[in-house]
Amino acid sequence: MELGMIGLGKMGAFMTERLVRGGHRVVGLDRDPTAVQRVVEKGASGADSLEKLIAQLKAPRAIWLMVPAGAPVDQTIDQLTPHLAPGDTIIDGGNSYYKDSVRRASALAPKKINFVDSGTSGGVWGLTEGYSMMVGGDADVVKRLSPIFQTLAPGPDKGWGRVGPAGAGHYVKMVHNGIEYGIMQAYAEGLDLLRHKEEFHLDLLQITKIWQFGSVIRSWLLDLTVDALSGNPTLDGIEGYVTDSGEGRWTAMEGIELGVPLPALTGALDTRLRSQDPEPFANKLLAMMRHEFGGHAVKTAAKR
């Protein structure tokens, strides 16, 4: 099959390369001409405008978007739509909010342009390991595009599937990322506890390597933890600042809307948010309240 790929950042470029290796023809487009050149060197075709990208594809066309969630997706769709025809398909492979995907599918339906949302996991390892894809959209459209998903996935019949109508793919990926938050937090807390048991002189790298085999908590995230500790066992030079890209917040909000308790997931999100505050006012206020009611000592910050 052939496909247009818009957004050739690291993940988009790796997906393009995997598709080319699998025998698909891919036309790439990015704001950065050097990004286009890199995929051309891997065997893809390149374009420097939407018009030129679409002109290189045969109908019915499929365009895969790997652009940042939110306004950039809407802007790209708005720019694409005038050049598309009934039967063409837009695939959003980024981490869009599922309600946005439902809205976009509804807006494109009267134009008879298909919308497919593919929640995509795999990161920089997807080129070699394959991508896990949670796909939402019309069943017939997804079936027609299945050769693309089969090539990107770890195997033709594993690691991907249509999970429901448009919006369902990004919904499942949202919850997937919320679970990811919780698993990462559990590893981080457990290893931090081990680190603080100084009298045993525990070797975190040794312990995580033991857990990799036979343990009920072995996982790919644990393997990546081993890789990180192998390069820097004490994490010297790493600041305890953890970003969040939105999916954890969306998952927490969904739990509130549906009345489903998510203590592990929301706790992990709270920890990330706290890490992003260089001077947590709440902690200062707690210290002062203890001082006010009990005369407890307060540790003062050094003047700058």
How does this model look, in words?
This protein has 304 residues and is of the alpha/beta class. The protein has 14 helices and eight strands. Helix 5 runs antiparallel to helix 9 (168-196), helix 9 (168-196) crosses helix 13 and helix 10 runs antiparallel to helix 11 (220-231). 33% of the residues are buried.
List the keywords.
single chain; 304 residues; alpha/beta; eight-stranded mixed beta sheet; 14 helices; 8 strands; 12% strand; globular
What would you say about this model in short?
This protein is of the alpha/beta class and 304 residues long. An eight-stranded mixed sheet has the order 3-2-1-4-5-6-7-8, sandwiched between helices.
Strand order of the largest sheet: 3-2-1-4-5-6-7-8
What is the mean predicted local confidence, pLDDT?
95
Shape: globular
Based on CA atoms alone, the radius of gyration comes out at 23 Å
Tally of helical segments: 14
- Percent of residues in helices: 40-55%
Output the helix-strand order: EHEHEHEHEHEHEHHEHHHHHH
Number of strands: 8
Largest sheet: 8 strands, mixed
Low-confidence stretches: none
Structural class: alpha/beta
